[in-house]
Batch of 2 targets.
Target 1
Amino acid sequence: DWNMPDYITEAVEKIRAQVGKDEVILGLSGGVDSSVAAALIHRAIGDQLTCVFVDHGLLRLNEGQMVMDMFSKNLGVKVIRVDAEDQFMGHLAGVTDPEQKRKIIGREFVEVFDKESGKLVNAKWLAQGTIYPDVIESAGKGKKGQTIKSHHNVGGLPEHMKLSLLEPLRELFKDEVRKLGVALGLPHDMVYRHPFPGPGLGVRILGEVKKEYADLLRQADAIFIEELRNTPYEFVAGQAVDADNLPKNWYEATSQAFAVFLPVKSVGVMGDGRTYEYVVALRAVQTQDFMTAHWAHLPHALLGKVSNRIINEVRGLNRVVYDISGKPPATIEWE
Ligand code: XMP
């Protein structure tokens, strides 16, 4: 158990000693690990760090803008944002198989990242937000989500760019990374956000991914998350929460929560007319390790409010369902 300011001082000195005057590239995803790594490395070497943020068009509502505001505006970190939505959507057109979609998103990600990084001809280091559990995991089998991380480094970067790896979080567990992030000045809500998969909304739109679907899903998902954050937690029988450390709201009381887009139309009524529109499913789970999970017993009033808001505010959706499947046999994501 270490003291945070001392830890930061030590980590900063170590990074400075390691990279000297060299330039460093980091792939910023908006996730906790790469964000904390960026903040720490920036603290150590300032403008010698350039972050590359690939926006694949499968991020959550306003997420790209939030990442840019936080790093570029507030922290003064050099960030290159690559808007690659069209490229990703183009390659995903007509593809319905989940693993195929993951492969394409991973491949294009590496492509875009390498192309952008290749322009930073003076870079000598590639920084990654690898944390201790990743180190252990990649020594073992590696789960389906790891492709993006592990392949960066061996992607198509130009021959002359022999980048060395800089992994300043390698010895830290997730809770330590979070504490470090807060100590470095990252917002609490960002650092304690639920996990979000690398392929993003690509695996939360069942079957073929389309921009139209992603736009509908983003709006529904944002409403769900907003209501979870705004609804105070109250104990409901069947909850698997830590009784000594009671959550403040339903966002904190769940381990992961999101909306899923179902490309199925059902009939509804609006005013005098009938509608024929898409469905979203809400998923909220509680888990310690994400290997098994319980569906969260959200209060009916909360579910009702979210459903009303989605149907009233998102034109194109007329039905909301709640997923009450545990893992196993269901997985947390629908794909
Ligand atoms: P499942 O759906 O397998 O998810 O129960 C377990 C955890 O892993 C996340 N997940 C992924 N993360 N790339 C990632 O980076 C992926 O392809 C991927 N698939 C699932 C999921 O969000 C949950 O936290």
Target 2
Amino acid sequence: MRVLTGIQSSGKPHLGNIIGAVLPALADGQQSGNPAFHFIADLHSLTTSREGALRRENTSSVAAAWLAFGCDPNKDVLYRQSRAPAVTELTWYLSCFTPDGLLARAHSFKDKSSNLSDVNAGLFIYPVLMAADILLYQASRIPVGKDQKQHIEITRDIAKVFNNHYGQTFVLPEPVIREEIMTIPGLDGRKMSKSYNNYIDIFQSDKGLKQVICRIVTDSTPVNEPKNPDQCSVFALYRAVASEQETVDMREQYLAGRIGYGAAKDQLYKMLLSKFGDQRERYSTLMSRPKIIEEALQAGETKARAVAQETIVAVRDHLGF
Ligand code: TYM
């Protein structure tokens, strides 16, 4: 059983990435007893961002986040997607087995293409590159946020077509989605996302973090009146990080009107500082030591390329290349 997941380097890793992917992938990887594959989807980031220097910086940030949260480069496989280039070759092969209607129906394509002035073909075949990411490494469990579920279904569809035609070649992957979390809201209540610019960067300074939390949009219920926790982004974010008991206590305070939004934001801020204090410290140490990040990545890339090679050789053979 192989656990695999990736995060784009189109921006700094945010709280949604950490809760939706990093924490569950690290936990699932540990449970599996096998090396987990954690990668930085730098090729995917080219669909929306073209600045090389910025990509390099964001790639380091995402790698540092994986390491800060406990990815062990001696056990797990941490790598840049682009450094195992067989993935682009497999993308081409798989794209020839993918009905274009399947891609036209992808939510992410519909969402992103309606927001962008420049809709490139890369954005359209994005799910095929993602399928190649997963199938190349024969991964079976893919911890992701809810927004990626459809991409994994597309991956399964493509793999089935290929397997039916050529015999068992690819493992069929399954999404691993924590139902109680699913989608972490951003500052404006929509899904937290780099593209909506509504995200919380948990690695920024204390002051910056506090300011960002103050910007979370709430309704205008007065301080002493009961509030609906299930319609409040502050509560949703608190719940995503807090223990069960802490969540029950906060819910009670909301329902009884014993807490105002300002105080709830303050509690959220303090909780983020206390739960992620060690990771924040490790992240900033790593960011000042790029050599450590680079060594971890290169070690992972050697292992990733070896696994990729086995799959791509088998695929070429089936296809007559
Ligand atoms: P990306 O970079 O948009 O997000 C990385 C991971 O974070 C999760 N996530 C969230 N989870 C909960 N709430 C949110 N608001 C939230 N925002 C982001 C995403 O669901 C994802 O798990 N295409 C992928 C990257 C990718 C990948 C892969 C993932 C490329 N190849 C292969 C898994 C397997 C993406 O753009 O994720």
